[in-house]
Amino acid sequence: MRIKFEAHAENQIKERLLDKKQVEETLLNPDNIVDSKNNRKIAQKVFQAKGFKFLLRVIYVIENSDFVVLSAYKTTRIEKYVVKE
Fold this sequence. Notes:
Layout: E1 3-5, H1 7-15, H2 20-28, E2 32-35, E3 41-49, E4 52-63, E5 66-75, H3 78-81
Parallel strand pairs: 1-5
Antiparallel strand pairs: 2-3, 3-4, 4-5
């Protein structure tokens, strides 16, 4: 599968100072995937930087066997989005 980025996602990645390689890693090797509305999915992965853990959330759809990234953001509120089993 290839990874494509919508223009909006590209802008958000730049504005939010996200590491594009981490976005790609989250898509290809997520800690978990959550179903969202409008056939969207959210890939989630926990990273650590400067002694802090954060959750990277990547919102995407699959079109013609490709990942199409719609949005991405990071949060330190991991417990809000990750359900422990």
